Amino acid sequence: MTFKKAITLIITHLLAGAFGVALGIYLLPILTAPTAPATSEISNLSAQAQYSGEFQRDLAGSDFLHWGEGKVSLSPTTITLMGKLAPGPDYKLYLSPKFVETEAAFNQEMDTMVLVGDVKTFDNFVVDVPQNIDITKYDTVIVWCESFGQFITAAKYR
To answer: pLDDT tens for residues 92-110?
Structure first.
């Protein structure tokens, strides 16, 4: 085997391995996600909500791999989404006293935010609000990818 052929094989194998890892990171959350809550469950919980907002795909910090769309509803006990999120690993739901729509703004305001919980489904979600969180002290709900420090989406609800 020639030196050039050996280098070509090493490079192509490394590229194939990197592609496989990237594909696994993208597909694993989809394959392991629990069943999304039914539309009827979301509708029932949304009817009890005090506030609502809208996730939109066209936020400054969103892109073709990191986005959310749909209606977010908040009550003192639950936050629901009737819509979709781009799939990804380790999504967290935060409440913020200030609307942010980029990774830089999120990092700058993070000290003023409160972590509500994990987002485990990508078509609709229900996240329970811990008793020690008062949703009236905030005005924005944010989905953040904790593993990669990536902004996904946000909605102003007050």
So the answer is: 999 999 999 999 999 999 9
Give the pTM: 0.83
- CA pair distance 134, 157, nearest whole angstrom: 14
What is the CA angle 60-80-77, rounded to 5? 125
**What is 112-142 written as a DSSP string?**
G-EEEEEE--SEEEEEEPPTT--GGG--EEE
Residues in Cβ contact with 119 at an 8 Å cutoff, skipping those fewer than 6 apart: 85, 91, 92, 93, 125, 127, 143
Residue 59 is encoded by which pair of tokens? 């936020």
Beta pairing, strands 91-96 & 140-145: antiparallel
Helix (H) or strand (E) holding 82: strand 78-85
Please say whether the beta carbons of 152 and 141 come within 8 A.
no
